[in-house]
Every structure is written in C-alpha cells, then in structure tokens.
Design brief:
Length: 306
C-alpha cells in the first residue's frame, strides 16, 4: 500500500511511518522542509507549503491512503490571538489543499484518515461522550469542528473518510506524559485542580494499531474516539503515576495557579472528557494496553526511563 502522510515528521507521524514500513508499505511525507528530514528506506519526502497543491498534488494519484496529521502543537505556548489563528490556519488550510488534490486526481485514494482531538466534546464533566455526542462550545471544540470539516468534501468524491479523535498519547517520548510525571519525580506530585476531571489517554502502540486497523477495514468510516477503555479521573491517573514511580502523592496544584500560569491553555488539564471507545471496540479492534497500569509498566521498562 502507498500511503501519503501530511504532518508525517511529527511525533505521531514518525511512529506511524515506522509501523507502516515494518508492515511492508511505502510512505510519502509532505513537509515544508523535506531536505532536513532523516528518511529511512521506503520513505520519500515531498515539499509543500501546507496551503496549496503546488508541486505535489499529482502524487495523490499514486496513493492508496492519505493521512492528514497537520496542525501546530496546542502546547506550543500561551494561547494568544495570533497563536490561536495559527492553530486554525495550520489545520484548515492544509486540509483544504488535500481536498483539492484529491478532487483533481484521475485516480483517487481509497481512504483519507483525518486527525482531530477528543477536545471536540468540550468539558463533558460526568457525561459520557461517544462519537454521536454533540461538540462543545469552547475554543478547542470549535477548532476541532473546523479541523474535521476541512476534509469533509472528499466524501463526495467517493473517498472513505476516517476521523480520529485522539486522546493524549502516552509513550517514552510523549511530552504530555513527561509533564504528568515531572512533579512526582521532584517529589511534589498531586492532583491538578479538583482532580475530578476525566482524563482520556491511549498508549502509542494502540494509537498506531487503531489507525492501521481503521485504515484497512473497509467497513469503518466516520469519527472514532481513540481512547483506552479504562476511564480515569485526574486524581486516579495521578495516583497511578505516583505508584508506578514509587513517589509520594501529596501536593495538589490549585486550579487558579494553573489558570494564572497557562491562561486559556489551562483548560487542557483542568477540563476533561469522559470519552468511550465503544465504536472502535465494535469495529473489532483489541487494545494491547487497556489499563494505565499496564501501559505505564511497559513505558517505564524502556531504556528512556531506566
């Protein structure tokens, strides 16, 4: 299978590329600076501006699948109006360019996998959210709506479209997991805010496994929550991390301090989604790491945490 990945040089794209290669597929990566990428055998770098089809659109005709992972990192800094505009443009402009390339192709890919986030649902509090639950009304929710909609037109061209609403991904190189772990390594860890907010999460192997499963299963389409089956509140997640690291759990971080330090970005840790993965399980996917204990045991056994 020939796979084109937009945003393939990032954390998720790199892991997906490696697994595709191991499975015998060929990969093309769209990048603003392909000459700076380290590309293993079987991977080709293709330059683009993330806004237009100039110089690359024709290669879509060679692809069996397209994966759109583009978007500026939401944790790249305080959410100023200028940065929020970049969050939006980096997602919507690239999605529209991909649609244009597919529209103009004589031979179109069979499937497009569109990235999104579990933040689509806003702060669900204790309400369980599945793929048919409505979107929230905050900035992240509205961003996800526009992000997902940017590639919706490909469905009119006969292309099966998968939307992955991704939870925080845990791995040895995961920034979000290191942020959760850091206070405990310094012996000052505890709950964040009230600790009652739900924290969806997923191990990197299940994230990649689910993507490949959805990509290759012709019966799968539409949105999927990529979150582990085990539903945890922040206080439960933090206690599990403390136990895994053999560190004390005692110093909570008040919500007002996080709001002062992070501004609007604090909603990423003070609010949560009680997201279920029922649709993914019904599609036939089996999680390798359904519980946080198992996921942390695997991650902490790796050399990076030795």
């Amino acid at each position: 299978m020939n796979v084109l990945i937009a945003g393939g040089s990032g954390f998720l794209g790199s892991n997906l590329t490696n697994q595709l290669l191991q499975n015998g597929h060929r990969v093309w990566i769209l990048s603003r600076n392909p000459e700076r990428l380290y590309l293993p055998d079987g991977v080709a770098g293709v330059g683009w501006d993330a806004k237009t089809v100039a110089g690359w659109g024709h290669i879509v005709e060679e692809m069996d699948a397209v994966v759109n992972l583009t978007g500026e990192n939401l944790a790249s800094g305080i959410w100023t109006p200028a940065r929020k505009n970049r969050f939006l443009s980096s997602r919507v402009d690239s999605g529209r360019a991909i649609v244009e390339a597919i529209r103009d192709a004589q031979r179109r890919p069979k499937v497009l996998l569109q990235s999104s986030a579990i933040g689509y649902y806003g702060n669900s509090e204790d309400r369980i959210v599945a793929e048919d639950s409505p979107a929230g009304e905050d900035f992240l929710s509205q961003l996800c709506i526009l992000w997902e909609d940017s590639t919706r037109p490909v469905e009119h061209y006969g292309v099966r479209r998968i939307i992955i609403r991704t939870s925080p991904v845990f791995s040895k190189n995961s920034l979000i997991l290191r942020m959760f772990m850091l206070p405990f390594k310094m012996f000052i860890g505890g709950k964040l805010g009230s600790g009652k907010q739900w924290v969806p999460w997923i191990h990197i192997e299940d994230q990649i496994g689910a993507i490949l499963h959805l990509m290759q299963n012709k019966k799968c389409n539409g949105p999927y929550n990529l979150a582990a089956p085990e539903l945890l509140r922040n206080v439960e997640l933090e206690k599990t991390i403390a136990e895994s690291l053999n560190r004390p759990y005692w110093l909570p971080v008040p919500a007002f301090a996080l709001r002062i330090a992070l501004g609007e970005m604090s909603q990423m840790v003070l609010e949560g989604q009680r997201a279920v993965c029922t649709k993914l399980l019904k599609s036939g996917y089996t999680f390798k790491y359904p519980t946080l204990d198992g996921a942390l045991s695997d991650i902490l056994s790796l050399p990076a945490f030795g």
